[in-house]
Amino acid sequence: MKRVAIIGSGVAGLATAIRLSLKNYDVTVFEANSYFGGKLSSFEKDGFTFDGGPSLFTAPENIEALFTLAKKDINNYFTYRSLDESCRYFFANGKKITAQKNVDAFADEAEKVFGEPSENIKRYLENSKKAYKNIGELFLDFPLDLSLITKSETYKALFSVKFPYIAKSLNSYNESSFKTPEMIQLFNRFATYNGSNPYKAPAMLSMISSLEQSQGTFYPKGGMISITNALVQLAKDVGVQFYLNSKVEKIETLKDTVNGVLVNGKNYKADIVVSNMDIYYTYKNLLTDKKYAKKVLKQERSSSAFIFYWGINTTFSELGLHNIFFSEDYKKEFKEIFEESILPVEPTIYVNITSKHDKNHAPNNSENWFVMVNAPAHNKHNWEEQKEKVKKFIIKQINKQLNTNLEKHIVAEETLSPLNIQEKTASFMGSLYGTSSNSKMAAFFRQQNRSKHYKNLFFCGGSVHPGGGIPLCFKSAKLVADGIQ
Predict the structure, then answer these.
(1) Spatial distance between the Cα atoms of 403 and 348, rounded to a whole number of angstroms
(2) Do 190 and 209 meet the contact criterion of CB atoms below 8 Å apart?
């Protein structure tokens, strides 16, 4: 059996480990932290349970595929349910809407509340769905190499590409699709799903909305951490070995071929190495390859986040699982993040409350709030200095929208800054998705899953092809496993 060493136990690392073990490889996962999951972790504080990072669950078929391959009943490991709504949106002008799973109901509600013709929304989502099916799946499910020329899907995709997808930014495309500023802002938001600026990112990103609005959102019982727990248990059941508190210090090479890893000062021989670590740190720290590390830095970093974890000693019926409080000047917000590299003065606020579905995540008559604002990638910022400013703004905005006095209800607090994200997850500069998609060709410059410079070295995770976010991390794992075979 060939030996595989996987660096990191994020979603992509775990999924890769499962797939390769099922292909009869001897797989070992090395995790630097004392816990599994990378960004997809959780913690408890003062009786409240919080998901540490990603909070949106879409495209459950990606995790189901692993249990099907393993011939295991997923219900023994992991359960989830479909949600009737994807998000509750609150706008600066006081208007609000719930994005229902039923597209017709959502479109009709938008027409009533904002005056946006319902046909505009239906047409947009139908186009997004087609683009994802004809173009997105090709890009996401296959390596971006010359083999694409031989695939029939490639030609279908080429005929499906509309000129605006390439020529326009997402914002420009949305301005031509909708008549109301609220709908433009709502659909601009999907650029943040890979840490990008809707005023620069290509209109092709409009297809992201089909994942959430057309296919629906889901809730995993126990919160997002249950995804990590299910994958770890499945991996163990199919023979994967794990070592926690085991920091990989170096990828060993002989000429241009990798042959193992150095872990806590000890050598571990491997025929294949898969890095689930940020691609920049993989080149810079593990391969000490400054040349290729420098090439990664030529690409603009994605946005990061500043997060407050609040234990709230009351409940708010106005809020659901996912909630967005939009800023008044969205364009200014992204200019501050990407051009001025500062925490926005008046950021959009995301609030996730898992106790809406898992009551044991908070004490009785209480809620666990995961409160996030978009932030620039870390670069000598003083986040402690920024913390109180952004906290005051968040409280002010939520008080205004919900007619409450939020500050007196906060009984527990933890924070996570871009610097903390970098330190905890080895994500360079705290960028949540590696590089942004703020240029038309950005996706094609992402690191591919197979190294072109080192034999038997592969990459998975959010900083490489096909991109960041849980669904794409699962896809990168499949690309690696297929590539190794």
Answers:
(1) 18
(2) yes
SS3 content of the chain, % helix, strand, coil (to 5): 45, 20, 35
User: What is the distance between the alpha carbons of residues 93 and 100, in angstroms, rounded to a whole number?
Assistant: 21
Biggest alpha carbon–alpha carbon distance for the chain: 66
3-state secondary structure of 411: strand
Q: Rounded distance, CA 354 to CA 332, Å?
A: 31
Residue-averaged pLDDT of the chain: 93
Instruction: State the pTM of this model.
Output: 0.94
Tell me the DSSP string of 431-485: -TTSB---STTGGGGSBPSB-SSSBTEEE-STTBTT-SSHHHHHHHHHHHHHHH-
Beta pairing partners, 250: 262
Compute the average pLDDT of residues 108-117.
98
**E-state strands within 125-171:** none
Residue type, 335: K
Residue 144 has pLDDT above 80, yes or no: no
Measured in whole angstroms, the distance separating CA 175 from the mean position of its chain's CA atoms is 26
Give, to the nearest 10 degrees, the angle between helix 383-402 and helix 418-425: 120
Q: What is the pLDDT of residues 228-244, one digit of tens each?
A: 999 999 999 999 999 99
- The CATH code of the domain at 3-36+224-299+442-484 is 3.50.50.60
Query: How many whole angstroms separate alpha carbon 307 and alpha carbon 301?
Result: 19
| CA separation for the pair 353, 465 (Å, rounded) | 31
What tokens were used for 392?
A: 């005051």
Under 8 Å between Cβ of 240 and 18: yes
| Cα separation values, 341 from 24, 58, 194, 278, 427, Å | 47, 30, 17, 21, 17
Pairing state of beta strands 257-263 and 248-254? antiparallel
**What pLDDT is stored for residue 437 in this prediction?**
86
Alpha-carbon radius of gyration of the chain:
22
8 A C-beta contact, residue 215 and residue 58: yes
Q: Give span(s): CATH 3.50.50.60, the chain.
A: 3-36+224-299+442-484
Both tokens of 200, joined, read 């620069």
